[in-house]
Design a protein that fits this description.
This protein has 320 residues and is of the alpha/beta class. The chain has 9 helices and 12 strands. The strands form 3 sheets. The chain has a 6-stranded mixed beta sheet with strand order 8-9-10-5-11-12, sandwiched between helices.
């Protein structure tokens, strides 16, 4: 119960909101806790040109329905606005004529901001091909890839390079580190390629190596690191440019079970901490079950599927 002289927060809905957009106004007034509190708040808001749904009575079905409709419309608009990566009618065919091979036939994907989505399929199903198209590392035979609702222009090489360097981070199954360079130098490469000076690039690289638990290994050459350490260096390299989307192609495929689990848990933590939008291609159902959604890739088409695996266990179980 409110005490005399306490702050009374009141939430009221504006009388006229454009296109069902809900506008909430918070009013805090110092009032006495008495039977006149409600009338005082109503009077205060009336003077401000607002109408109280509370004052209309708890049984006002029309206002309740309007509020619910406004909420649904607002949620739908928010849902549409949060699409980070999308494909429409994506098709990829290698070769021509009788020797042509269709890898993707009608791949449609919507990846929303903040999601971690898994694509599961056996080897050779087209997972890598799809991720390469999403990262603009390859061009589709037909169809379009959209980033933040804008089509990726495949004819503009400079724009593609900018997109690959800043918008997406790509994590390969094999780490693809340069063996003659240190871990820090490998992580700094994407920054150096876009023109940043060596000192600042190396400093940022060391920061990211610390983030993945390899601060003490920054000056070791890539060939001096274990398989799990090399993959963590690759994760730091994929994220050092500050991308909003992480595309991971079988990131645990070359690791033993213990390291695979450790790397996946690291990806989960970085996904949450840096508010990434992540798409992970894998054939491991137990890893996939930890993601927000699981998609299957069958005959070149993406379909929603269930990952029938115990997400609490060690990695294991393959898609078929």
């Amino acid at each position: 119960m409110f005490q005399v002289g306490s702050k009374l927060p009141c939430f009221w809905q504006a009388a006229n909101w454009p296109k069902w957009e809900t506008v909430w106004v918070k009013v805090s007034t110092t009032v006495e806790a008495s039977s006149g509190t409600r009338d005082y708040a109503k009077k205060h808001l009336t003077e401000a040109g607002l109408r109280s749904s509370w004052g209309a009575g708890r049984g006002s079905k029309n206002m309740t329905q309007q509020t619910q409709n406004a909420k649904r419309v607002s949620e739908e608009e928010s849902r549409q606005a949060s699409v980070m990566l999308e494909t429409r009618g994506l098709k990829k065919v290698y070769g021509s004529g009788e020797k042509s091979l269709a890898i993707l036939t009608d791949a449609n994907l919507i990846l929303r901001q903040g999601e971690m989505v898994a694509i599961v399929a056996p080897s050779g199903a087209g997972k890598s091909t799809l991720l390469h198209l999403l990262a603009a590392l390859d061009t589709p035979t037909s169809g379009t890839v959209y980033f933040a609702t804008k089509a990726i222009e495949t004819e503009d090489d400079a724009a593609l390079a900018e997109f690959r360097n800043r918008a997406v981070g790509f994590l390969w199954q094999r780490h693809q580190l340069l063996p003659d360079f240190t871990a820090a130098e490998n992580v700094a490469m994407p920054l150096l390629l876009r023109g940043e000076n060596f000192t600042s690039a190396l400093g940022m690289a060391r920061k990211w190596l610390a983030e993945v638990g390899l601060e003490d290994r920054a000056d070791h050459r890539a060939g001096e690191l274990s398989g799990g350490e090399q993959q963590r260096v690759a994760i730091a390299r994929a994220l050092v440019t500050g991308p909003s989307v992480l595309l991971a192609d079988e990131p645990t495929g070359d690791l033993d079970e213990q390291n695979a689990w450790a790397v996946f848990e690291l990806l989960e933590r970085l996904h949450r901490t840096h508010r990434l939008t992540s798409l992970i291609a894998t054939h491991n159902l137990k890893l996939a079950a930890r993601c927000d959604r699981v998609l299957g890739l069958e005959h070149g088409v993406l379909q929603t599927r269930e990952a029938a695996a115990d997400a609490s266990g060690a990695p294991g179980g393959e898609a078929s």
